[in-house]
């Protein structure tokens, strides 16, 4: 799908003029869609073949397929509903509840044991192939890296000890620290406040890098942050094509750069450095 670049929230300038990159983690640095969709297959497999839902979620393991996009969208909608309803609930508990809710909506059985396993699975989600190298190159280029993540501290600590153990983060801000989930503006206001408090970084020196249009780029524009869209191919949780198009047509986002991977962002930073921008 071809989307026009939106008018940037703030005037574009060289990437090297920013000092801090705030990241969405799950979906941008870490592949959470694949393991989540995989974990939900046990529920999908219980749907009777005669049900219309069986057709809707058919072939849901194949990246980019209508079934996978539908299943990822189903999870995304329920996750957002629960986050809005229970903004202080720990993310592992929210995942537990989301699993049981999806089972109920699909008309199948979801056990407490499976729901608990689903809730505790965050730390096992793998990074995208380009993530660690790109982060290391961005640190080398002088950026402070700060996660702004919709998870609890314990879940993120497992990711830090495992998939992202070789990434040097300056600070970590989670939904549990803040008491709300993105897209709440509180999370971005917390980022702006603490970037200044913890690192002496002003708002106009923050570059927010994320895959999710809904969770990250819409609120980033509202608070006036420069941002980069990592538009990973086949990511169903980022929003369906028609939704993305409407958001762009209404100019609800204002990211200044768009890349297919985090590695492409690191490449652009290095290109600017070579050319003296």
TrEMBL record:
Top-level taxon of the source organism: Eukaryota
UniProt name for this protein: Haloacid dehalogenase, type II
Alphabetized Pfam families for the sequence: Hydrolase (PF00702)
Keyword annotations: Hydrolase
GO molecular-function terms, A-Z: phosphatase activity
InterPro entries cross-referenced by the UniProt entry: HAD-like_sf (IPR036412), HAD-SF_hydro_IA (IPR006439), HAD_sf (IPR023214), S-2-haloacid_dehalogenase (IPR051540)
Cited Gene3D superfamilies: 1.10.150.750, HAD superfamily/HAD-like
